[in-house]
Amino acid sequence: MKKREVNVTLKEHKPHEKHTALSRPAFGTFHRNEWAIVGGHCTVIKLLADQVISALSSAYKCAYIDTAHNDDITVLPGRLASGAVLDMVDQVNYRRLDYSGDFNNFKLRETFSFADIVIANGNHHECKAQVVIIAENKRASLQKRASQLTNVQLILLSENMQDVFDFVKEAVPNWQQIPICSINDTDTIISFFKSKMLSFKPVLNGLVLAGGQSRRMGFDKGSFNWHGKPQRYYAADMLKTFCSEVYISCRTDQQAEIKNDYPSLPDTFAGLGPYGAILSAFRYNPDSAWLVLASDLPLMDEQTLRFLVNSRNISSVATTYKSPQTGLPEPLITIWEPKSYPLLLSFLAQGYSCPRKVLINSECNILNAMNPDALTNVNTPEEMERIKNLLHQN
Fold first, then answer.
1. Domains, the chain, with CATH or none
2. Is the pTM of this model over 0.85?
């Protein structure tokens, strides 16, 4: 039988299309600000973590991560033994969640996103920064983890230890530039963590909300001239005093209207109003805090902005003003901290796009304005005339 010749034409494969490039937060395993304490006995690490947490907890939300050593206990607790995947117990002064699933890095970062600092037992967990204990009885254990010493920031000498192990010197070439102190020098250790937390204060950027449709007003409120220039530029100039960088938030179709000397940030979460503008800012830079200012606040002044910035609490989701009319937080004159980004996305996933609802249902730093009139916004022609008269009188 004559063989048939079969011609096979191979399809040309299209080049792999990468996912959209996003600015990623500077996370480690659990958090932006995380340290693994490694090289000591687990009991020593726990005691050291207790001292640090006790000193920081009045100003920062602290989290601790460890691994249980009761390997002989294999029975699942509570309803997990019956097949539940999550078992919550509401205690009098704390809540306990037992979870039967695995925690990958994505789940861990979501879980610890509300915290300000994470300390982990480095004998069991890795972090992007390390505190190394030099103890003779843990020499072998630490040597096994030498490859994990990627960003050592503090070295602690146990009792009777005078020098750093040679293998640590090899693993950490800059070890001589790293602070070294006794593990019993609690004051120095606590000062180290306090100074680190102060240095990690997120940079504050400004965002002028100028992308609204202004349907009730009938024209673009951001373009109205209250103080010698369009209000969006006047607001941006005020923010420059307090912010590292200032952007004007706008719709994509508006971007060409914005002056070149005022950086613009078009909405990438379209159709969500101010909520989308805030999310777009965090998408652009998720590690910055954003001072959000609406462009329909003609009575806003530098004193009101200065009080907001000086009262900023980075441990809160946001620092904001209480509305003198409603008593509710004002989301459009607010400093939104980086930890609010996953929270905003979470509310959006549940079907909510109201920034005020996020503030009401979150831990925020809410202020009373010294000049309540500064929070007055203008949405209608009637309100505009009233503010015109007020400005003329002043």
1. 26-65+113-200 (3.40.50.300), 204-393 (3.90.550.10)
2. yes
